[in-house]
Amino acid sequence: MLRIRPLFVVAVSLFLMESCAAEPRHAFHDVPMDDGTRLATDVYLPADGDGPWPVVLARSTYGRKHAGFASYYQGGYAVVVQDVRGMGDSEGEPYVFRAEGWQPGMRDGADTVAWIRAQPWCNGVIGTVGGSALAMTQALLAPATPHLSAQVLELVPTNFYHHSHYQGGVLRKNLMEGWLTAIEQPHLVGEFKAHPYDDVFWSWYDADAVAERINAPGLFVNGWYDIFAQGTIDGFLARETRGADGAREANYLIMKWSPHGSDVTQDYRHHENRFELKVSEIRDKFLRFHLQEDARALDGVAKVHYYVMGDDAPGAPGNVWRTADQWPPYPTEETAFHLHPDGHLRQAAPRAESGALGFDYDPADPYPTHGGPNLLPNLPAGPFDQRALRTAREDLLYFTSPE
Distance between alpha carbon 6 and the CA centroid of its chain, in Å? Predict the structure, then answer.
């Protein structure tokens, strides 16, 4: 049996254990999927009362024992935590995410929701929670069942080809190979490399393309230096503009300053006001509104919260939280900028006789990644000063626009 120990604390940072929490009632179930495969599932019921309750579901690639759920079962929810197929204590082939969506015969999330709805402790209202890989299972579940009332998706890609595997059509080598190795599924590296183009294989991992089938509104949370920042924004917009009646125009977006993990960087001094917005408070209001029929829970909560980055020099503009009614916050106009041989970006096109620029590329010594949206500890993430590398190496082309 494959057992996966927790690898990335950030993937479960949504769940905070309260030391004073009353112990819930716990039961373990081997929940059968449509093909007979059994998935290891923990059920936690509130310590008091007979129910039925609304349910909070988390489907995990990192095991079931790593997270506390006091804020949920104390708040009047039943909590269900499940190991996905082939991971943790669940049966099945270890092929991460393949059985999570709407592909015929591979609908573990939808099968689990159907099982929950049949239990006497469920009142028929179900929401899902989780970050990173746990949010990816949510994204794939959303189009597969009409029986979800809300989702909290933190650090999520919603189109796996473009957001997680082949950003801009280019393989995200360190991210994909590193993560699959970390979860002990390196055998899938070749499988994903065998599909370098956005073909039918990836259509089963593209929730945005079938947004019209999603009726669960989402609270989407991410940060500017996260590996899935664009995916979270795209997922929000897909549901907001093209979702089914329950989801369309009912979603919320929070964009923080942060990378996927720690926000420590030697090159940038973060402002302490980045912690002024409490994501957990908005999350709890969002769930109360959709799962507990608290019609006033979201009163005064803006549709969009976003942190504006800025220079870390004292008194510099930026480094503030702002709100908006939509994304993007202001009307935008697509504008072309052109590369000029003097290293500038300008709206005016260069003369036709300007020629070409190039550099010598050495695959044995590629230009190094220095900060940015990274996941694994071998590549630190976040805002890093690029000037030291830029002046020391010649294997790059560099263009700048006016301020």
Answer: 17
Beta bridge partners of 41: 29, 82
Flag the least confident range among 21-35, 122-136, 170-184: 21-35
Closest CA to 43 of 97, 110, 119: 119
Residue 354's pLDDT is 66
- Provide the whole-model pTM: 0.92
Which CA distances in Å does 301 have to 78, 210, 284?
A: 25, 28, 12
Residue whose C-alpha is closest to residue 248's, from 234, 258, 237 = 237
183, 279, 359, 362 from 190: Cα distances, Å: 15, 38, 31, 25
Q: And the tokens for 378?
A: 């071998």
Q: Is 259 helix (H, G, I), strand (E, B) or coil?
A: strand
pLDDT, residue 267, reads 92
CB 345 within 8 A of CB 339: yes
Q: Which of 19-23, 213-217, 398-402 has the highest mean pLDDT?
A: 213-217
How far, in Å, CA of 24 to CA of 44, rounded?
6
Structure tokens belonging to residue 293: 């029929």
Specify the amino acid at residue 157: P
User: What gap in Å lies between CA 142 and CA 130, rounded to an integer?
Assistant: 13
Q: Return the structure tokens found at 41.
A: 């599932």
Identify whether the C-beta of residue 380 lies closer than 8 Å to the C-beta of residue 265.
yes
| Cβ pair 88, 60 in contact under 8 A | yes
pLDDT score of 9 more than 90 = no
